[in-house]
Design a protein that fits this description.
With 121 residues, the chain is an alpha+beta fold. The protein has one domain: Glutaredoxin (3-Layer(aba) Sandwich). It is built from 3 helices and 5 strands. Strands 2-1-3-4-5 form a 5-stranded mixed β-sheet. Strand 3 and strand 4 form a beta hairpin. Bound molecules: FE2/S2 (inorganic) cluster. FE2/S2 (inorganic) cluster binds next to loops.
Length: 121
Amino acid sequence: MTASSTLYVCTTCRGADPAAADQPRAGARLLAALEGADVTVVGVECLSNCTRSCSAAVAAPGKWTYVIGNLDPERHAADLLAFARQHGAHETGLPVWRERPEYIRKNTIARVPPMPIKELS
Ligand code: FES
């Protein structure tokens, strides 16, 4: 059984087209668009990818971590969710590249190797 994945969404991202001061930020709208998803979704403040926002990360214990950028809350929630599901289904978090949603393939900013999982004695 593989570890389930968590989708971290930056809620402070302003996105490519910043909202008016009295409107929710693009990152907060992306988080709202993912409400009710069948993947664990957690809001965070800043993934250090501000110039290519909106930003999200997909991670799980013992798996590769991905940072994804240039996300539009009105257009890319479904792609992000599909990728998080693929990540969750793969033992080490390396879903087949050509099977990943195209927008995710083209806007993956970084991937980080898994941390070693300590054996409990
Ligand atoms: S504010 Fe979203 S990555 Fe920095």
